[in-house]
Amino acid sequence: MTLANSNNLSFEEKTSAITLSDMEIFVFPRLFYSIVLANILSPIIWEWKKDPWFKDIHKKSPRNRIIRLKQFIMDNYVFNLDLETWGLTNKQKEISRFKNFIDTDKLKQANALFGYEGDKYYFDIDIRTHFGLDKYKDDLIPYWKTETLEAMDAFKYKPGYPSGAGECVSLSTLYAAALFIVAEIPLEKIFLLATPLHSQNFVDVGQGLLTNNRRLVTKNMWFNGTPISMKARRALENEQVTIISHISGHMHTLYEEAYMSEDTYIDFKQKIRAFLKTELDTGIFASFLRSSKDVHICLQYECEINGKKRYIELEKLFDYELKRSFFFSGDTRAKLIESIDPGEFHSSMIPDRILLNDIEYLLEEEKIDISNPQDIEKLKKSIGGECINSIKLISSLIDFCITDPRLPSDKKNFITEPPIDIKVGMGREEIKELILSLRNVNRTAELALYAFRDLNLIDAEPFLKGALERNPVSYEAMKEMSQEQIIEKVSKFSSTSIYPGDGRLAQPDEVFNYATGDGLEKALLIASVLKDESREKNISIDIQSDKILLKIGDSKTEFSSTKKIRPQKWELYPVLKVTNHDPI
């Protein structure tokens, strides 16, 4: 194990922490946890603790605290699949930008925006269309940016959004921060997992659980065979896990260095594999059948009604399950049978169908070990018949009971950094001081400050670079307008920043999408649209305490600001340059 001895953040990492696109997080995996830390620093999430919904939450068990939190997130956020929210870029531009940081061919193989096709089955179910990626078959690709908590909350200002919103990375990083602050789950127990098309968290509480967009998936849910659970299984069943991120560090499938202790990674692998594996019993077999509709026509079930044996097709039985609040697997089977119309039953066995009861009897009597070849042979004989391909069915059953996630190799050069030792019970200001104290020795801590966007704590140039080059929505919407029209339109926006507190600023597309912003944010939005070679005008913003002076050529426009950013001048075009009026 090697000890990291310097921070050495590149300018590209800093500016990526501002815009937080899927590509940027993939290339710079530290950004994944930096978003978590930025959310932990957000005053908004600490206000959640005062909500009546969380009254006395500390008195509940960890599981019940998490369930309580889940319902709050379900009520206040929707999953946003609109890849065009943050505009478009193009593949060649992004490949050129990252070529010095990652192998281009590997990028194309592992990132969904650069040609990743994943497991054949995964894409046979048309997942690209589901995500809207089928529209991007040429050089154009969506930015697919991750929203921090403030930008998620601000979706309520957009037409068509009744509440906050976010995509999967936004929701996973929000969950991680909220689990720590509100549910008081130690950060050591939360692991963030990214695959090319999804992001979720594994939480080491009890048997373990996964956050999956807004929902939670317990171990029982993972193996219940319902449609929603089978969808939740897709990423870990069919995709390579590219990034694992944790308070202790991270690892990336494409990089040889792992900034996480080897012991932490080994422990994580053992726990998530235990979560993804179950013993085979009658309940699990019934859950498997629920997810395997193609074999229903080969099976029948025998039960006793009014003292007489009766038989029913398996597909009818599961059809009734959909109509009732009872499950065929588990303790509610008898109630499910009672709820079925008596006319659905046969008085004698249905020809050419295997009796499910015989299979269940074997599972009860023999205690079949799904990993034992001899036990598998016994099961094959019980299932055998012309209707069912027993070999195929057994293979599918094993896959159902044991998910073997494709995790990054542990053959890495494990490197340690000074820890970000954040503990349950610490307050927001205490955590902020800790992160500030680590900024020169821990790169994730430094990037968290950039993701937090307090320009009194970070260099302005990376923020401005992102503002001028990676905010295409506002540019495309207003590029044909005159300077006067742009200033008039933006000046009419509401004057409230989506980022509370001093020093924190929204990017231009955030101001435009939500039609609200502080005077300094409005000035930067106007400048980002007018920064165009065809206009050929020098552009600068002079910050003089609460007075903002936007200069475009010979014209001057004044705005007021409550951001209390230290006095400085931003020369934005034709050359980006920042001059501080007062020493820091």
Care to describe what's here?
There is one protein chain. With about 575 residues, the chain is α+β, with helices and mostly antiparallel strands. It has 3 domains: about 1-275 and about 405-445, no CATH class; about 280-400, no CATH class; about 455-580, Roll (C8orf32 fold), CATH 3.10.620. The chain is built from 27 helices and 21 strands. The strands form 6 sheets. Strands 9-8-7-6-10-11 form a 6-stranded antiparallel sheet, sandwiched between helices. It has a 5-stranded antiparallel sheet with strand order 19-18-17-20-21, covered by helices on one side. Strands 1-16-12 form a 3-stranded parallel sheet, with no helix packed on it. Helix 3 crosses helix 22.
Q: What labels would you give this structure?
A:
single chain, five-stranded antiparallel β-sheet, 3 domains, 584 residues, elongated
